[in-house]
Write a structure and sequence with these properties.
mainly alpha, two-stranded antiparallel sheet, 45% helix
């Protein structure tokens, strides 16, 4: 009796899967020089670096890729969307807004994500990280003018942002990644991190200004 076929596998970084739409902001944001501490945008993260950076073998894990045809199609879709739509928009954004303004915009939206980072630090029993995020949010929301600046991350204070999310929280409780998925617009993910994105959504303040169920009628 023939054995059942083994699902395809994919090499998948243990790093948190990235959000595809973040790439437009990364393209628009220019690097900030090292002699200006505290001015670097919190949101200037390399969130679309899958397939571009070499990840050491020790930091990789091989997981099943049973949706390989779907994933390949979605990867192609995202790739075309980036080069035909998002990259031109990002370049236009970069041309219109000077670098200091782009940095402030990135800081503002990253500051809004502080509740996500704080909640997940608490859920992971990372009290130092939670207190760091709490003080960062208070300082950047007041002295930093509603998050437009990042005085908490400057050399004088040195409070480093805690990049925690709900997907990582699930992982800390032993939930496995599952199989490999590439979502349209969002990029590579897994069942665990897909659930994590939903959890992060409900921790994001802007989600309550225009909640998802409003769009459903």
């Amino acid at each position: 009796m023939p054995l059942p076929a083994t699902p395809a596998v994919a090499s998948y970084s243990l790093e948190q899967p990235s959000a595809f739409l973040q790439l437009a902001k990364d393209e628009a944001a220019s690097p900030v020089t090292a002699d200006a501490p505290g001015d670097k945008a919190e949101g200037d993260e390399d969130d679309f670096d899958y397939g571009t950076d070499d990840v050491p073998a020790a930091e990789q894990v091989t997981i099943a890729d049973p949706w390989e045809p779907f994933n390949r199609a979605m990867f192609t879709f995202n790739d075309r969307l980036y080069f035909w739509v998002l990259k031109p928009v990002a370049e236009g954004y970069s041309a219109v807004l000077p670098e200091p303004a782009r940095v402030s915009v990135g800081n503002f939206f990253s500051n809004l994500r502080a509740p996500i980072r704080f909640v997940n630090c608490v859920l992971q029993a990372n009290l130092i990280g939670a207190s760091t995020e709490l003080f960062r949010f208070m300082l950047n929301s007041t002295i930093g003018l509603a998050g437009l600046f990042d005085p908490a991350g400057g050399e004088e204070i040195g409070l480093v942002r805690q990049d925690e999310d709900f997907g990582q929280t699930l992982g800390s409780y032993g939930v496995g990644q599952g199989f490999y998925i590439v979502w349209p617009f969002l990029g590579p993910s897994s069942p665990r991190d897909t659930v994590g994105m939903i959890g992060d959504y409900f921790s994001y303040p802007l989600s309550y200004l225009d909640p998802w169920y409003v769009w459903l009628g």
